[in-house]
Amino acid sequence: ILVQDGDSSVEYRAWNPFRSKLAAAILGGIDRIHIRPGAKVLYLGAASGTTVSHVSDIVGQEGVVYAVEFSHRSGRDLLNVAKKRTNVVPVIEDARHPHKYRMLIGMVDVIFADVAQPDQTRIVALNAHHFLRSGGHFLISIKANCIDSTAPAEAVFAGEVRKMTAERMKPQEQLTLEPYERDHAVVVGVYR
Asked: Where is the protein situated, by its record's location annotation (predicted)?
């Protein structure tokens, strides 16, 4: 939506919490997402780049979003987002193998992960060890039934938090994404 304000116009964009885990976390009341103007963000599981575009808006031209996506189909859409946004660096690669894209990415302030894999905490930890500065933050979207479809969601979340602490990742906040997503949580923390 373009709104005229005197001689200039301001663009307002809709950010759907039913289609974005980050938007759901923000509307759900997460204290801090740590993504701010000028930040360098590693986004794991960028998909077609819709949420990446909102993160790009937040970090602004002084910041950068390294957007990692494994799927070539989604990657095509992500490349189109990056053509319009000079602060987005698309990386069409498997987040399980950060050594394959280490030449493209410098140290980052924040990792946001929405990879929906059974070993997603290990994937985020690998990337944190490569790219996340000490004192940097991580946000992980956890889909419980992707990790263990037989266990209660709360037990899955607790298990993932235990794995994080073993990887120098200190969880600080956890929030379920109801009513936007069933059996999902976002965990925010700091890397030491």
From this structure: Nucleus, Nucleolus
